[in-house]
Structure prediction request, 419 residues.
Amino acid sequence: MRISEVVLTPIAFPDPPLLNSAGVHQPWALRTIVELRCGDGLTGIGETYGDAPHLRLLETAAPHLVGLDPFDTNGLLSRVRQALGVVDVPDRHGLTGGSSPQKTVLRVFSPFEVACLDLQGKLIGRPVVDLLGGKVRDEVAFSAYLFYKWAKHPADGSPDEYGEALDPPGIVAQARHLVDRYGFRSIKLKGGVFPPHEEVEAIRALRAEFPGLPLRLDPNAAWSVPTSLEIAEQTAGLLEYLEDPTPGIDGMAQVAREAPMPLATNMCVVSPDDLAPGFAAGCVGVVLADHHYWGGLRRSAELAAICRTWGVGVSMHSNSHLGISLAAMTHLGGALPELTYAADTHTPWQYGVDVLTEPLSIVDGTVRVPGKPGLGVDLDPDALARLHENYLRCGITERDDTSYMRTFDPTYERRRPRW
Ligand SMILES: O=C([O-])C(=O)C[C@H](O)[C@@H](O)C(=O)[O-]
Ligand SMILES: [Mg+2]
Prediction:
């Protein structure tokens, strides 16, 4: 069985005006859906970023995968490496930290690896979780992911179901909506938007409303080291972890030495080259694995094992995504003994839009690990075509939260740290 065709479909789906330290989400989020076809109607699927520079790299790699055995993921990596050469393609928003040629290759490799695992599972009749070592849990926990947000995109008259959240009561109302609807049992607030003491007030309000639920705050490196230390002290006993308060391994290490809670990151330890310096500096207590840039599911499992060796915890990071990514995260989470924190997901922000016939659902804050062969989810060709049409007409080819924010506030500057 060999890969006979590689199909890449860029798609766009509506995204609410979520605020972060880079600016604000544009009205459309972009992804690329990967299909590896093997003949006999057998197809493996994957999902990744849809930004134009990344899409060009996927397109560069794709023809080199024809003829590959889907079990040969080592061969896959060397073909991707050879096809790309040495390239370094960063994200514009910088929300997943720095880039490097190594990280770029792993990001391009990832959706193809997931699609190969989907194929492998289908070929041998086993779910992907079994290919990752087998299930250590039946359900994977996800956290409610709160955002400061506007009621609607300014140029579009229709408010979304979540409404405005620009202060503690708005954040508590959003959390209530998400917790009641999905049963989440832990809560993350995306910060770095307002002066830190206002975000601490939101955390206090969440603690009062949800006394039993673990809380996290993630300002995406918007604070200086002294500000981070001050806020860490003020939130002592309130947070299960504080995520990326400040930029860089050195800054994080300075904060980690004195902060009363563990620090987590998806910004300073973001590729294999960061592991030795980051862990030796003691800069984090938790790494947010993200298979989309750590090189797929098996490499994310390797990352978790390295974290275990260093006594570092594991959680999971999420950007705006659809159901193939959720399925991949769920299989990974189902197989990782090291995953002791609920994973992030943007799923509730995508209004139920998907490319799947039957997306996995979040019930009691968890997603059940599928038992069907492969990822256990199927592409809906009509939905894929509709979302591709969105892509062609939406006018966005690269995620750029900062420029979008500047269209409403020309003085806006992205600064890390800002406070
Ligand atoms: O630091 C994080 O957790 C993220 O970068 C998650 C997402 O990218 C989020 O911040 C977003 O999309 O605005
Ligand atoms: Mg983060």
